[in-house]
Write a structure and sequence with these properties.
The chain is an alpha/beta fold. Helices cover 40% and strands 14% of the residues. InterPro entries: Man_deHydtase (IPR004628), Xyl_isomerase-like_sf (IPR036237).
Length: 395
């Protein structure tokens, strides 16, 4: 398995030397500066690749191995194969990436909002901070800030009462903060920042789209792009929904084993793969993570290895340290190692530690939410330790 590290580019607080010092060898990056829907150029990809792979004298070489992500425009999610211009632009980006020898592309198909949290610095018992999804705070935002039509019917009376109590206890600055977190798009997000009025408009545009239709639109997208991926040896890896359940009345279609099975059955191309994210899938108690890894082993080309802890109500959760929480990381890695040993060296699984705690000196610094250096370094070291114990030291 290959040790990866997500790097947000030359303006990010984490440098490429930080990546080297963490022990990673494979970089996960993207052209975040390119507007969603605009085709990437080979020139722009090569410029980023040169930054990553031009090694200063005496330094450890790095390789850009994974693109995370080429965003899929909203129109594709709403119109499927009818969004021809947007799909052609996406294929052009894929071709630019492939021309530079980068063979793994991660993407997601979450409508309107990407990964969602309600708190970015939830204080853990160690004094480190973690990101958190608090169901009651989320309900308070949806019911009393966003005021989504029909939302009340989707909550029980008890939920509505508790959400109202939470909302009334929140000072104005706290309401502003949760609004900013949910609507402004978190780092690496592939959806656009939204104002509250724009948020309502975007939700209204999905009024007629249920899970079956959204899944069909994803299938149409994959049918259009997988021939280009196959021709260039590119593996497309679909990231799970985060959280893995409907939000804001929107369907989610990459949340369970059954969801992925349906997509692989519909588009059996070998280019149609999976980003195996233990944190996202692990939020659902009914997801058996080792079983999912075993069933879809040949489809896994990229892995996000992190852990989450489900809280008392089963709907709230927070990011755990990588070897804690509800994910059995040892059992997961046993499955991934077994698959990895069946592959040629150039096709082995790229993994990265994900969403580390904000801790130590990072508590005093400006960090990218979810992506502090020290918490991810700790996570990568712990994962590396498991791999050594399993007799499969990573490269």
């Amino acid at each position: 398995m290959r040790q990866g590290w997500r790097w947000f580019g030359p303006d990010a607080p984490v440098t490429l030397d930080d990546v080297r010092q963490a022990g990673a060898t494979n970089v996960v990056s993207a052209l975040h500066q390119v507007p969603i829907g605009e085709a990437w150029t080979e020139k722009a990809v090569r410029e980023r690749q040169s930054l990553i792979e031009t090694t200063p004298p005496g330094r450890t070489p790095l390789k850009w191995s994974v693109v995370e992500s080429i965003p899929i425009p909203d129109l594709v999610k709403r119109k499927g194969g009818k969004a021809k211009a947007e799909i052609e632009a996406w294929i052009a980006s894929l071709e630019a990436v492939a021309a530079c020898g980068i063979k793994i592309i991660c993407y997601n198909f979450m409508p309107v909002v990407d990964w969602t949290r309600t708190e970015l610095d939830f204080i853990t018992p160690t004094g480190a901070t973690a990101m958190r999804f608090d169901h009651e705070r989320f309900a308070a935002f949806e019911l009393f800030v966003l005021k989504r039509p029909s939302a009340e019917s989707e909550y029980s009376q008890e939920d509505r009462e508790r959400a109202e109590a939470v909302f009334r206890s929140m000072p104005e600055e706290e309401i502003a903060e949760i609004t900013r977190i949910i609507t402004s798009a978190l780092p690496g997000s592939t959806t656009e920042p939204l104002t509250i009025p724009a948020f309502r408009e975007r939700l209204a545009a999905y009024r007629e789209i249920d899970a079956a239709r959204l899944r069909q639109h994803l299938i149409e997208f994959l049918e259009a792009v997988t021939p280009a991926a196959e021709a260039r040896g590119v593996k497309l890896t679909l990231h799970p929904d985060d959280p893995p359940r409907p939000l804001f009345g929107l369907p989610r279609i990459a949340s369970t084993e059954a969801d992925y099975a349906a997509l692989f059955d519909a588009v059996p191309s070998e280019a149609n793969g999976m980003c195996y994210c233990t944190g996202s899938l692990g939020v659902r108690a009914d997801n058996d993570l080792p079983k999912i890894a075993r069933r879809f082993a040949s489809r896994i080309h990229f892995a996000h290895l992190r852990a989450t802890t489900r809280e008392g109500d089963g709907r709230s959760f927070h990011e755990s340290a990588h070897l804690e929480g509800d994910v059995s990381m040892v059992d997961v890695l046993k499955e991934l190692v077994a698959e990895d040993k069946r592959r040629e060296a150039e096709d082995t699984i790229v993994f990265r530690s994900d969403h580390g705690h904000r801790m130590l000196d990072d508590l005093q610094k400006t960090v990218t939410p979810g992506y502090p250096a020290i918490g991810r370094l700790r996570g990568l070291a712990e994962l590396r330790g498991i791999l050594h114990a399993l007799g499969a030291p990573p490269t």
